[in-house]
Amino acid sequence: MAATVHILNGPNLNLLGQREPDIYGHETLDDVVRRCEALALELDLTVIAMQSNHEGALVDAIQSARGVADAIVINPAAYTHTSVAILDALNAFDGPVIEVHLSNIHKREAFRHHSFVSARADAVIAGCGVQGYELALIRLSRLLGGRDD
Length: 149
Ligand code: DQA
Fold this sequence. Notes:
- With 149 residues, the protein is of the alpha/beta class.
- It has one domain: Dehydroquinase, class II (Rossmann fold), CATH 3.40.50.
- Helix content is 35%, strand content 19%.
- It contains 5 helices and 5 strands.
């Protein structure tokens, strides 16, 4: 049976394609989801994507993934740098977690250099634009197939 990956996106990522395109690119979140769905077919994964501008809704989504999703890909957006609640929720999830950032947060303002989520993430992908989500799925396909090389 295909493994299920939940792809969670945080605040303002609903504006992808319109918001600071010089930093985040021109593709929309729908484009990202379509790319992920197409790749998931090839990798024999099922992907379910959600986006919220609200911290509590993201915590709820992570809790709902317990026992349902095999892995989580999360771009917590601004909550990356502030949210112990999202970290705690991820710590209660059993399964690989990959943190994705479109931009290279380490090349940007100092307040973006720290991620609470990285303390839980099995991998962090930053600075690869929308391809970061595809790289996360490729990595998960390997991890969920029992390989970590
Ligand atoms: C982001 C980086 C965050 O610092 C920022 O708040 C975002 C997007 C990224 O994908 O590069 O909203 O997570």
